[in-house]
Specification:
Number of strands: 7
Order of helices and strands: EEEEEHEEH
Structural class: mainly beta
Helix content: 10-25%
Strand content: 25-35%
Length: 159
């Protein structure tokens, strides 16, 4: 299956090491891609997490990376992204560097607080970008819940 990643899973970003763990399956980097449709890409929560919101036509065409992954790697990605409880993996069209359009699984935040639409929209993500909002790794999160996911969910999800 092809997946489109736009955030911390991109090469050189904080969670990219997931792709290097061969026990989690195999992958092939296919190159840079851009979403055919526009979406809001925001950075939110006290952990500076990038979220692509499923509001087609709003925001920007998002630049990220396209990978071919096997079933085990897809399961590892789903686990990291908490699919389908937190993010939901949906198929979206992405234009690759060679101009061809491919359907890719992409992790979108469906159940979000509408206030996220008031944040700045980005067309790409880099944890060390000029926005000065570096991603906080789960292992570095100072919260009462084990990995900070409950804290994040209370900030971004409609409850």
């Amino acid at each position: 299956m092809k997946v489109f990643v736009y955030g911390t899973l991109q090469r050189g970003q904080p969670n990219s090491k997931l792709f290097d763990n061969t026990k989690d399956g195999h992958y092939k980097y296919l190159g840079v891609g851009v979403t055919v449709k526009k979406y809001p890409l925001v950075i939110a929560s006290m952990f500076n997490i990038p979220f692509m919101l499923p509001v087609e036509g709003s925001g920007n065409n998002i630049r990220g990376e396209v990978y071919e992954v096997d079933e085990r790697m897809l399961e590892a990605l789903d686990g990291l992204e908490r699919h389908p409880v937190f993010y939901r993996r949906e198929m979206i069209p992405v234009t690759c560097e060679d101009g061809c359009v491919v359907e890719c699984g992409c992790y979108l935040l469906f159940d979000f607080r509408k206030e996220l639409l008031e944040l700045q929209f980005y067309d790409s993500y880099d944890s060390n970008g000029s926005h000065n909002l570096p991603y906080v790794l789960r292992s570095e999160r100072k919260t009462n819940d084990k990995d900070g996911i409950s804290t994040v969910m209370s900030l971004v999800k409609n409850i």
